[in-house]
Amino acid sequence: MxxxxxxxxxxxxxxxxxxxxxxxxxxxAQIKVYEAMFKTTSKLDWSxxxxxxxxxxxxxxxxxxxxxxxxLAIAEGADLDVLDIVALNARxxxxxxxxxxxxxxxxxxxxxxxxxxxxxxxxxxxxxxNILMMSIDQPGKPKIWMVTEAGIxxxxxxxxxxxxxxxxxxxxxxxxxxxxxxxxxxRIALESTSSQAAISSLESLGVxxxxxxxxxxxxxxxxLELSPVGRAILPPxxxxxxxxxxxxxENRSVDEPPWLANSPVxxxxxxxxxxKLVSDxxxxxxxxxxxxxxxxxxNAPGSICxxxxxxxxxxxxSSTLFNIIMxxxxxxxxxxxxVWGKPGSGEEGQxxxxxx
Length: 356
Hints:
Helix content is about 35%, strand content about 25%. The protein has helices at about 10-20, 25-40, 45-65, 65-80, 80-90, 90-95, 180-190, 195-205, 260-280, 285-295, and strands spanning about 5-10, 105-110, 115-125, 130-135, 145-150, 155-160, 165-170, 210-215, 220-225, 230-235, 240-245, 320-330, 335-340, 350-355. Strands 1-4-5-6-7-8-9-10 form an 8-stranded mixed sheet. It has a 6-stranded antiparallel sheet with strand order 11-2-3-12-13-14, covered by helices on one side. Helix 1 (about 10-20) runs parallel beside helix 4 (about 65-80), helix 3 crosses helix 5 (about 80-90) and helix 4 (about 65-80) packs across helix 5 (about 80-90).
């Protein structure tokens, strides 16, 4: 089944109201999914989650008032309380990183003036019907195209200035509710006109939890290992690429116990596969990246193309829900190809295009 496509434009309030009205059913379904997940991972019911969300709501209102206005309007449009929307957007922080979303990402400046930014997004299949493709058109800011969850204001995508974002969850402490929840940090990056402008904004605002943001523009990719207590920025290697999974490579400022044993395996594997494309002098394209890297089943179920692990509780089992490959070119407009489902499985959907 192809995902919804929702186009939003106007002021923060106009964008939020349309988001909430169009996606009311999906937002409420997401709350049900995360309510069950919070109970499993954190022993928190939704009323307790909303109580924790109050501190993040105050932070969002103070640091990014336009996004808070948008979230208030989402809640109004969906007939919910703003704390429900804040909780969705701060779900990684509220659960102290106890979710087990995987994800494998790759940024590659494979030639002068051509940059790819891509990932498999791994998460519980219970949210699949509530994921959508969204565009956001705001006066005075780059237009955004992204794949996101209903009710969440920033995620994986790119903008008309050829700035793109991918994410990898990290499980580490501490969290800091006086800083910006990570999904809002992604939105701030997507409103930026360059990677460096995004980095400057995020350094000013701070990020509330340990997370990895793979960002790229026409200058190439950068790996941002972010946390409330320190960050590391990793450049691409001599071949122009950098990959990341679900553990920090250089950031040692957080308490990060081992939590996802397949993460180092996937990182080694994606580096191996990408290096093979380099050594084979393979012409890079979205199709090649999907077929040669993001369909890979090595070390299944914890593979780049992730399969559900029946040993995990059903509420937290992850699998690859979509693949996105963004392309930034000095010769044209930024584009992306999105494949719903596990690439290369034979059960995935057709290639979808952004912009549409």
